[in-house]
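User: For my dataset I need records formatted as: sequence, then C-alpha cells, nothing else. Please produce one.
Assistant:
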Amino acid sequence: MRIIIMGTGPFAVPMLKAILAAGHDVLVVVTRPTRPARGRKQPPPNPMRDAAEFAGVEVWAPESINAPESVERLQALEADLMVVCDYGQILSREALATAPLGGINLHGSLLPKYRGAAPVQWAVMNGETTTGITVIHMTPRLDGGPLLVQLETPIEPHETAATLEPRLAQLGAPAVLQAIDMLVDWDGESVLGDLQDPEQVTKAPRLTKKHGAIDWTRSATEIVNIHRGVQPWPGSFTVWDRGQQPLRLIVSDMQVYQTDQLGEPGEVIVSEGETLVVACGQGSIQLLKVQPAGKRLMSAEEFLRGYQLAPGVRFQ
C-alpha cells in the first residue's frame, strides 16, 4: 500500500518501523518543522525525522499541512492512505480527502477516554489502573473517528508516564498494521469500525508547567499519581517559603508514607536522618529525592544535612 506517514514525537517511531518492515511503500514522512534554537540551546529533538532519515525515507516539514500548496502536494503523491501519530497538526477535510482511504491515527488511550495531546500523562495522573492504545479512522474532529483497533494494558502501581509511553508505542505498532489490513478490502462506503460513545468522552489537554506544582491540599495518593504522570515534564516541584529567600524544590521521587502524625497541608511533620515527610490534605508523603534550585539532585538525607528544615515548616 502507498502510505504517507505523519508524526513528530517518539510515540510514532515504532509504528514507522513496523510499516516499513511490513513492506508498505512509505512515500514520505511528514513532520513538524524544526524551529530555530535561541541562544545556546539546541533545537528540540525530532525522533521521527531521525528515524525516517536513518531508513532512507524522504522527510517533509510543511508549516501547515492544510495550506493549499500542501494539499496540492499530498494529491500529487497519490497515496492510498495516511497514517498519523503524534504529529501536532489536525488534518482538514481537504487534506484527508487526498487519499482514497483517508487516514488512520494511533492514539495513546482507550478512546473516547483521554482525547487530546497528553492521554498517557492524564491516565496516570488520574490514577487509572488500565489504559491502552486505539487506532481510529480519521475524521476532521480531533480523535473523533470510528474505532478500528483497541488494545488494553495495565498501568503498574509505580509506573510513570515516562515509562508507560514507550510501552504503549510498542503496543500500538502491530495494531496499526492490523488497521491497515482492515482497509485493504474496504469498499470506501460501508461502516468500518465502532462509533465512539460521546457520553464517555474525557479530555487530555497538553500539560503546562503549572501542572507540576504540588497541591498539598490533595490526598497523598492523588499527589503521588500526579507526580507519576508529570514525569519527565514538567516534573513535580514545591516552594519552601523562607521569608525573603523562598527556595524552589524539584521533587524527583516520593511515596505515600504511613504515620499517625498530623499536620496542615504542606507542613513538614518529620525531618530527621533520611526521613522527610510532608502532610497532605489526607495522609502524608515522604520525599525521597529533591533538587534545590541551582543545586544538584540529592537524597532527602543529604538535603536535611545541608538545610535547616525543622518540623512545622510549610511548603507551598
